[in-house]
Amino acid sequence: MAQLVPVESFDLIIFGGTGDLAIRKLLPALYHRDCDGQITDDSRIIAASRSAMTRKKYLADVEASLRSNLADNRFDESNWKKFKARVFYVPADAFEPNKWGALKKLLKGHDEKVRVAYLATAPSLFGPIADGMRSNGLVTDNSRIVLEKPVGRDLESACEINDAVGRSFAENQIYRIDHYLGKETVQNLLALRFANSLFEPLWRRSAIDHVQFTVAEDIGVGSRVGFYNGVGAIRDMVQNHLLQLVCLFAMEPPSSLDQNAVRDEKIKVLRALKPISVDDARANTVRGQYTEGSIKGETVPGFLDELEGEESSSETFVALKVEIENWRWSGVPFYLRTGKRLKAKHSEIVVQFHDVPHSIFPEQQYNVSPNLLRIKLQPDEGVRLSVMAKEPGPGGFDLRPVSLDLSFAETFGIRYPDAYERLLMDVLRGNPALFMRRDEVETAWQWIDGIIERWQVSKQKVESYAAGTWGPTGSSMLLDRDGRSWHQDD
Q1: In a domain, 424, yes or no
Q2: Is 241 considered catalytic here?
Q3: Across the strands, what pairs with 376?
Q4: Coil/strand/helix, residue 480
Q5: Spatial contact of 465 and 291, defined as CB atoms under 8 Å apart
Q6: Which of 213, 257, 284, 352 has most Cβ atoms within 10 angstroms of its Cβ?
């Protein structure tokens, strides 16, 4: 196990500190890092929200959340006593920065520390909070600001947010977070590609037939129904999570792990994405919306039911056929899909290699399956390589695919850290390599806006799919037309 090195002393201000993200994700992630000795004794976590609340009440809420949400039963009274001593609460309304007296008082005399403002709020508050930090004199040379996705809902709004935050913080102080990039398996894409000479000669059009990216969830939109209506899966998931996975998978080898070396290669992939025309939108994109169905034996409502009968054309499922127009990937289709209320929580990248050019096994010539490399992101992180092998026994060659499996949890024998744990530590260390640069966000939005515009021009409707399935029929047909099919564990 790698040695855990403490970060520099810091003050972390979580705006939106009473929200679901802060309580269920950020505080537990920081608690884990504190338990493992990565947080110095003089570091502080300051929750800020417009709610009037005492520190005692806030700590009670955090404790209750830790007790119920720590999946590995890591709650410990002595660790909690140490952790709660560094947690504070202050009222701070984004639109009334002149009333941030309690926050200013708490930070006074601590300008030498690393100071991080984590904006676990709606994007509409990013600009006002950044302005408030500046107008109150809280932006120091050691300050950083973290923006949760989505940064805007289209290119125009993303530019407005970036401009607003950029008035108070330099670009190298801005960390646009996508928690998918903090997953150990996603980061293992870099290790798989660039630490193994075995794969690099094969990571190209001459060896790969196509690539599939799946980010499937079995939950519905739940309490986010108001947000999701009018946003849809393409803005919520494709613009950030899926396109970032495509970038890490398809990028050219960077010269180093330096932040700009990695991000320079990622932006090249985004710029090489083939624009989708109106005709392409009809043939190569699918929109879906879940209806009532059954998941794990329980009946669940449809999306419109959760909207209480309100009509909506927002998609809860998207499938795309994507092309990257460069020398490495020209002619290799990338199939992307993501959706809510699917059959299982299941995220992976599947690389299907070309068929063998000639089979020397006549009786098996129709049964030689192409090699598959499956990079599992969740729930069971690992890598599986499918190869053809002879079944034991005399009398001819009976072939079948077998898998070479690597389970990260079994191999390393440790608790797998949550993505936010890694990314929070990267922010505190000042390492933005796994965060999105402004040009990445805006280039991704430009491509996504093109698809949404084509949908509007062609009036492409959403297809219904029953909850508990793998999505609408059009998703299967997207690959079937190319003589391919989705790889999934049914």
Answers
A1: no
A2: yes
A3: 348, 382
A4: helix
A5: yes
A6: 213
- Binning the chain into helix, strand and coil, the percentages to the nearest 5 are 40, 20, 40
- Do residues 404 and 385 make contact, with C-beta atoms less than 8 angstroms apart? yes
- Identify whether residues 111 and 249 lie together within a single domain: no
Same domain, 138 and 274: no
Helix/strand/coil (H, E, C) string of 230-267?
A: CCHHHHHHHHHHHHHHHHHHHCCCCCCCCHHHHHHHHH
Domain that includes residue 121, residue range: 10-148
Residue pLDDT, tens place only, 131-176: 999 999 999 999 999 998 889 999 999 999 999 999 999 999 999 9
Question: What is the distance in angstroms between the CA of the first residue and the CA of the last residue of the chain?
Answer: 35
How far lies 452's CA from each of 152, 198, 229, 300, in Å?
15, 39, 15, 29
Cα dihedral 103, 104, 109, 114 sign: positive
CA distance 364 to 302: 45
Residue 395 has pLDDT above 90, yes or no: no
Task: Examine residue 156 and state whether it is found in any structural domain, yes or no.
Answer: no
Q: Over the stretch 445-472, which tens digit does the pLDDT of each residue have?
A: 999 999 999 999 989 999 999 999 999 9
Distance CA 476, CA 462 (A): 15
Q: Is 255 exposed, middle or buried (0-12, 13-18, 19+ CB in 10 A)?
A: exposed
CATH code at position 298? 3.30.360.10
Q: How many domains does the chain have?
A: 2
Q: Give domain status of residue 109, yes or no.
A: yes
Q: Which of 179, 210, 241, 346 is catalytic?
A: 241
- Secondary structure class of 110 (helix, strand, coil): coil
Question: 73: phi > 0 → left, psi -120 to 50 → alpha, else beta; which?
Answer: left
Task: Check if the beta carbon of residue 285 is closer than 8 Å to that of residue 451.
Answer: yes
Distance CA 306, CA 298 (A): 16
Provide the β-strand partners of residue 95: none
pLDDT tens profile 416-456 = 567 888 899 999 999 888 899 999 999 999 999 999 999 99
